[in-house]
Amino acid sequence: MKTLSVRSSFWFKSVVAVALSFTLLTPAFQVSAAEADAAPKGKTLNAANATAFLDDFFAAETTKPHYVGASVVIVKDGEVVAQKGYGFADQEGKKAVDPASSVFRIASVSKSFTAAAIMQLVEQGKISLQDDFTKYIKDLSLKNPFDKPVTIEHLLTQTTGFEIRDPKLEDIHDDFEKVVEIDDYVRANIPPVVREPGSSYMYDNYASMVLGLIIQNVSGESYADYLDKHIFEPLGMTSSGFLIEGKLKDNLAVSYGPDHSPIEPYAVTPTVMPQGGMLSTAEDMSKFMLAFLKGGAVSGTERILSEDSVKEMGVYRSFIHELMPNTTYGFEAPFQLPGAGSSSKVITKAGDMIGYSTYLFFIPEQNTGVFLTYNQNGALRNLFYPEFISTFFPQYAAPAKLEAFESKPDQLAKFAGFYSDLRLNILKTAIHGEASLVIHDSFLGSRELKQVDHNLFVDQLTNQFTAFKLDANGNALYMKEPYLNPFGYAKKGEEAAGYADVAGDHPYARVIHGLQTLGYYENKGNTNFQPDQAVTRSEFVKSVLTLFTVPESPVAPTGFTDLADHPNAGYVQAAFEVGLVQGNGKGSFKPDQAITRQEAAAILWRSLAGQFAPEAFESIKLAEGTDEWAVDAVRALIAFQIYGPEVQPKEDGTIDFLSGKTLNRAEEAAILFSLYFSPVNHIYAALLQQQAPAPQSEAPAVEAEKAA
């Protein structure tokens, strides 16, 4: 069994790429315009059809790789129409999934229960959604430079304006005796407010944790006790809770990695996690779904929520466009369906923890709810949702009826620029064009955007929508797209201030100024960049880790003997811990020695070697000057176009990476910029298919340069 490990951001891009590959399958479920006009009808959702659908779906060869065990329940018109388990809760022990007893971590679906508890307190008049949330947390020091408070409603709709505060690496651990209270964690990790509250959507785990603390402080009960007493017990949810103990521990499904190998059990911090720590079964979740669809009624006069509260939780409060809603109180928009967008008639909640993924969705006007959970992270839900909709409710996949819109090329410039995801800063997007817009990222490469409304564009790749939020002057502030992170906005970067020693026609101006706009470099004018200055070994390590949002290690240096008291020691140690630099604790790193280009390539190659076979790059012919130990690394960077204009093909067809030359700051900027935008997975797939090097006749870092 694998021991618990948390992947660093170096592998994050590949994980996203896998999920994206299934997002791109959705056109197969698209309803044609002709079918939409004919008011398409799906199969009747009854026990026989629901069971047949589930059996066929989970038996499909396209589905099997994406789960070890799965548990699912479908409710309709006040009844459970299907409740089944597939695969194994424990593959090694051959223990099948039982929807009545197999316990799964349902992760962020916990947020819907936290929201329900908040609405109970609102009903009782103990809190108001428009209250400043700090009213309920004594002596909390919140830095908010805006004249608008962060309200409880903002917490519910994930529009707080908080700086991101996601779980830290150490928050997932194997110390089951460790206890950290919600109050202590909230106070130790309070973020500043960096955007006007209510102005932007960012998936916000911290906000839901704060809601959990408010529930404690207002009710006088612990969060876990409150949920147990006021939601679980009334509903008869006897296999739900927040602590891995008793029968929840005994019945917890084993979690698995992408290769279907088991992962060791783990604990979380805080010990009770309102934003993602709930454990439950499919059968228990059916009880919540039935009550929710009955307007909060349980039985007789007993309720968990008023009918008004349930209705309020089903209303979208945040939109970037009517076809792309964001959040309700406790729920979020469904996956986009090609040409249809995200239906505001459907409310959903997705959840992920290491080795577990979940999807809950309601179609209130159809009196229907579905819960799917499985013990392997992946895109099973991305396959399930569109197939379910197309089978039973194809009207929600019908193409949107948009009024004719005349796009004016001279109005497109306001959308162009570089965008950084508010939550996942590693995700960068470039938008450029004059007569038409082209969107580019390192996952999907470049594709055209066709304008269909004043702030709405359709992606020519899969016919899904991308939208922009505009300011009062009509300029783009934020973007929301369907692939990289549909659960939040990306912010447009400010125009680069430039550097006194990097003129506009400097060969590296595009990448240097681009990194300023993206916020990687400070965006201040009247300073010098020093493009010809040599980069030291420790500086390069720090630059790469910073780009991939990997923090410096708090551990004293263990890989090398010459890092004590060095300002970059924490970054070198972090690189050592994830395998980017190699040491045995007895040798020196020489942190202030200038790094050569091939040494830099070797560091980057170690972050990629587990994903890409070096044999794919053997056809790339290198000029003399690369040491044998660096050949694979240099070939990979050339193939992936991770370099600047200094690298050019020679007349004999070889390519000189200038491997033994010292790396300077301008060249480092080109590498960093290319890491953001070079579509490495596309290039690798093409190499495997063609068994030939990518074309080298264009300007270096061609994809990244085009993005600029």
From TrEMBL:
<dbReference type="InterPro" id="IPR001119">
    <property type="entry name" value="SLH_dom"/>
</dbReference>
<feature type="signal peptide">
    <location>
        <begin position="1"/>
        <end position="33"/>
    </location>
</feature>
<dbReference type="InterPro" id="IPR001466">
    <property type="entry name" value="Beta-lactam-related"/>
</dbReference>
<dbReference type="InterPro" id="IPR050491">
    <property type="entry name" value="AmpC-like"/>
</dbReference>
<protein>
    <submittedName>
        <fullName>Penicillin-binding protein</fullName>
    </submittedName>
</protein>
<dbReference type="Pfam" id="PF00144">
    <property type="entry name" value="Beta-lactamase"/>
</dbReference>
<feature type="domain" description="SLH">
    <location>
        <begin position="555"/>
        <end position="618"/>
    </location>
</feature>
<dbReference type="Pfam" id="PF00395">
    <property type="entry name" value="SLH"/>
</dbReference>
<dbReference type="InterPro" id="IPR012338">
    <property type="entry name" value="Beta-lactam/transpept-like"/>
</dbReference>
<keyword id="KW-0732">Signal</keyword>
